[in-house]
Structure formats: structure tokens, C-alpha cells
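forwarding from the other thread:

> can someone predict this with 2-oxoglutaric acid?

sure thing
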Amino acid sequence: MEEMLRSLNKDEILEALSHGFCHHCQPLLHERIRTILLKNSSGKVNEASSSSDENLERSVLVNMPLNGSASNSDSLSRGLGKQCDSPDSTFSLKGNRQSHFDLSLNDGISGGSSPENGLTEEEKECIRYSQVHIKKDFTLVENVNGRDINVLQGLELHTGVFNPTEQKKIVEFIYRLQWRGKQGKLKERTYSEPKKWMRGKGRVTIQFGCCYNYAKDKKGNPPGIIRDEEVDPLPPLFKQMIKRMVRWNIVPSTCIPDSCIVNIYDQGDCIPPHIDHHDFVRPFYTVSFLNECKIVLGTNLQILGPGEFSGPTSISLPVGSVFILNGNGADVAKHCIPSVSSRRISITFRKMDDSKLPFKFSPDPELVGIKPLIFSPLNKNGNLQNQHVPPLNGNFKKLKLNKF
Ligand SMILES: O=C(O)CCC(=O)C(=O)O
């Protein structure tokens, strides 16, 4: 038995031991095993394994290598050989500790972080960014108030933004949050789970930055942001995700999110048809994890039964992708997630309207002034370059990466 366990990696052991456990017990078991493994490997509990508030924060106050610049393959093909300028090369590096929950931009790149591959962090970030694929041409023409319009105008799907290694870190972190919510270690309005466990019952939600009411609550508060309720602030890992999305030109620097909702959908869970409340400005952004699922869209969505919704069109949301809702796609079309066939997690990041900020809210300085990567039209000799797509396994040393 011991021999057999030794032959498995950590994830396989976790999977084998927790298979069949309910969604309450699985994160708890994961957490316990991880703590034992960390204890064994370091002789004492690693800071990332502790579940105290302070250590949870500390474990994610980590140094994300942001001193680089990149382009996705389209802009690289327009601009490869051009200099990449990083206007915020010194942006907000906090602490030096490496952590289990660090998002490192070179994760998953062939050759990993070994120094022999000869790539700088900037070059690795270029490669990662070049792997992001963007789709913006969603079309569904519907007649609205007597006019034919594209009700999906404004939607964008960016795939490959968070790679499998990063997804795993983020999901593990979310399980830890879920566990802490269950233990009553998060603020009361941060964590909520549906009372009844049946198909179409809803989903677990974890809110950061503001308390959002989906429907009139028992105190009579209307739907929207409840300004006098407090929830926990955005965790550092989620801020790292936001920084990446801004740097990679996914999130405009004019609309940097200051709140988010984590949705944990167990099998059968759903979110009914809705248009997001205007207490949040547009655009807003949904990142998907664990399992691909379809988001159903249209001006007229049908409720067929518990968790069963239908509509004129749907878009598949791959894991690691960022789906942007803006324009008609956010405000004319409704959207919903019908009952999922297997567990899925999403994080929807949103910026609050200034006039709806919670009374005790103060902007997070780490999220102020993040700048997107910029590609200047010159190569290292000051000449314009030929346009070509970067060789992903090729020599990125050709790229001259300037820092301010
Ligand atoms: O889970 C998703 O992809 C959608 C979430 C959503 O629509 C919401 O939180 O309002």
C-alpha cells in the first residue's frame, strides 16, 4: 500500500482519497492532506498551509514577476521585432516570498523556469501573451423595439489567459476560501450557500469588495450593492489576476474591477437568466475553471424547469478563459448558466459605480494605475521589423524588451 501511494503524485493521492466525498468534505480533506504533506516536506507547517487569516493573506502576498512585456500572437505578428515597453516595470511588487499561490507568468512554458532555456521573465511573458486567443465577432440579430440589432455586440472571449498550472492554484485557493467560509472565518456576507441541495437550487457564492443582493433580502434590502454591509476585501491572488488582465489588454485600465463574486457550481447548479445590475459599470469579466460550460444568451430566455433554461444562442466558456460582457451583450441580451453537468467555478470581476460604493470602501492602492503593456514600433536598432508570428519555441532573444 505504502509503495503504491509513493508511486502517485500529490494530486492523484488527493483524488483517490477524496473521490465520492461530498462537496463539503472534499475541500476539508484536501486541506488536511496538503497540510500533512507540507509538514512532512519542511518539518513544520509551511506558511501557505496555515489557515489563519493572517497566514492566508501572507501566503498570497507574493511577488508576481511583472517586469516584462508581451503581445498576443495577433499584435505580435503586427509588431514582432518591435520593442516591448513596460511602463510599469516596477509595479507593485509586494514581498519576496514565493508561495504556492503565486501566479508566475512563466508557468507552463516549455523548459519551465530552468535558467538553461535562456529566456528572461519578459520573454516568457511575451510567449504567454502570444498564446492568448481572442474572439470578438459574436453575432445574434434580434428585433428590439422594431430594429434589428446584434444583441451580442460587445462580447469578447479571451482563451488561454490562465494556464492549467495557474488554474490549479486558483481553484485550490478557492477551495480554501470555501472551507474558511464554512468555518465562519470569512465575513458573514462574504460566503453564502443555498439552503436546499436540489437541482437548480443556485450555487455557492463568495463575494469580495462589496455585498451584492441578487434579490430583495430578508431585511427588505432591494437587489444591488448593499452599501452598509461589509464583506472581505479582494484577496491578493485575485488582485494578481486583475493585474495580469490589465497588462494583457483584456481589462481596460479605465474599468479595473474592485469587487468580484466567486460562483461554485456543483453538478446541477445554475444561474438563472439575468442582466447584471447597473450598480456595476461595464464591462465586467468572468473567468472559468474546472469544466467548460455553455452560457446561454438572448433577449428572451425561457425557464423550462429547475435549472433548465433555453435561448437562441450559447457560447462555450473554456477553462482558463476570460469572457467579457459589454455593450448589447451585457445590457440588451440576458445571460444564464443552465444546470451544469459537472462542477464548475467562475469568478466574475466587476467595477462598482462610484455612487454605489460601500460606505466603508476605500480603493486598493495596488489596483490604481496599473498600465497595459505597450509595443513600440521599433526594434532594438530603431528600425521597423518585418511582420511575422513569433516562433513559440524559437529564439525570443531577438525581442528587445525595454524597461523604463
Ligand atoms: O458563472 C458564470 O460564468 C456567469 C456568472 C454570472 O452571470 C454572474 O455572476 O452574474
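The longest helix spans residues 164-182. thats all i got for now
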